[in-house]
Amino acid sequence: MPESSASPQNDPPKVLSDLQTEQTTLNRVSHRLAMTDPGPALEKVLSLLLPRLLSRIGKNDDARKKHKKQRQDSASANNNNKRKLSGEMTVSSSENTIIYDQIDSVHDAIHKKLIEMLTHTMKRVREDRSCKLPCGAVLELLTTTQHQQSSDDDDNGAAAVTNAFT
Q1: Which of 16, 75, 86, 144 is most exposed, with minimal Cβ within 10 Å?
Q2: C-alpha span between 157 and 136 (Å, rounded)
Q3: Which residues contact 135 (CB under 8 A, 6 or more apart)?
Q4: Whole-number Å distance between alpha carbons of 143 and 5
Q5: pLDDT single digits (tens) 91-109
Q6: What pLDDT sits at residue 5?
Q7: Residue 116 — very low, low, confident or very high, per pLDDT cuts 50/70/90?
Q8: 102, 19 in Cβ contact below 8 A?
């Protein structure tokens, strides 16, 4: 069977590589956040970073759940194949288990880094009472997600109305 038959999205080594790259990027962004001076510079960074950070937490959680499901599906498929080809599939199954464990580990590390960045943001904003947060962008992120879910569930299609100043 050719190796190109697996889609690149489900290729465990590629997923691991992409996650490691993302973790490196988060470390750089976290360092930049920590080095940003209070005042207008911090507000500018937070106005761009905070909505993306919250969005990324949700995407990381979704990716973790998707990976867990794929891992379970792969394990059940490998169990079926073990019955047919007991020696050959056991080796690839153990290699996949190692890669899947690494993927889980990087997902957890990314989640911890995202939470660390949010905690750092909270501390910085608590110290600087004049710092303005992008509440409108955060609400838009949350209400867009809620509206998409509710429009899938409801037939009325009424949009959620929010006012960032209330």
Answers
A1: 86
A2: 22
A3: 164
A4: 39
A5: 456 777 888 889 999 999 9
A6: 43
A7: very high
A8: no
* d(C-alpha 17, C-alpha 70), whole Å: 17
C-alpha 26/C-alpha 53 separation (Å) is: 10
Give the predicted TM-score (pTM) of the model. Answer: 0.67
| Dihedral angle over CA of 84, 88, 90, 95, nearest 10 | -140
Query: What does the pLDDT look like over 44-90, one tens digit per residue?
Result: 999 989 889 988 998 998 988 888 888 787 777 666 555 444 444 44
Structure tokens at 129: 């009472």
Cα atoms in the Cβ-side hemisphere of radius 13 Å centred on 30:
17
Measure Cα distances from 4 to 9, 14, 45, 97, 103 in Å: 12, 13, 42, 21, 21
The full DSSP string for 7-75 is -GGG-HHHHHHHHHHHHHHHHHHHHHHHHSPTTHHHHHHHHHHHHHHHHHHHHHHHHHHHHHHHHHHHH
The Cα-based distances of 45 to 50, 73, 87 in angstroms read 8, 41, 54
What's the CA gap between 47 and 1, in Å, rounded?
49
CB of 104 within 8 A of CB of 60?
Answer: no
